[in-house]
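Quick log. Single chain, no ligands specified.
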Amino acid sequence: MKLAIIGGTGVYDPAILSGVREAVVQTPYGPASMEIGTYRGQEIAFVARHGFGHTVPPHMINYKANIAALKILGVERVIATSAVGSLNPEMKPGMFVFVDQFIDFAKSQVRTFFDGGEHGVVHLDYTEPYCPEIRAKMEEGARALGIDAINGGCYVCLDGPRFETPAEIRMFAKLGGDIAGMTGVPEAVLAREAQLCYASIAMVTNWAAGISRTALTHQEVVGIMQANGEKLRAVIMAAIDNLPARRGCSCATAGVDMPWLADYREGGPRWRS
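-> predicted structure:
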């Protein structure tokens, strides 16, 4: 299994997989639930970030277990989706943004797999936090499909579950933020540490607070995401179809091997799925 999809708000079923089965992968950070199926002969894992019934708020997601489970399964590439509010007049509701940078304002989550121990202190480069190879294929697919998308945008991440204040949004815009969400970090950070190629499709569901003339509701966000589900799946399928068999980016060499990996891989003493 080389590829995974992480579905955010409003994306609880990839609807492109056949022969789907449920799996629970045990990790050093707790169990991770997912669905595994096939797309054009390729086995793919699907993780519902908030749970399959949207039961897990953003500040309580077990990001470490989710990313560790994908690493245990042998996944190399991850395409993630998220719902975001826009700070940038060029990134209008209904558009897709293929994120290329982030600003991390989240505080509640442990941000790393590396807490010392046998690896010592690990500092990784995040000059290019998102896989350029996957992003390029998503952009090509969106263009071919006539879907309105921008390749490049700075994602500002907060803990949630509350939405941002207008004062925060004004500050983020001055700092160079384009869109705001609650889940992109530490997910992107952990994926890089695990040597996974990671790319994010951000669906702009609304103008951010202070820009929008109306109050935002969670149900509105879910509704917009679901209404654009077909376009989202089309971009993901186009990217998967056109990715080269072997990775040509530097993501695979960016992180450090996990010391626990052999124990949890299939056949290891702690393997269960």
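The chain has a mean pLDDT of 91.
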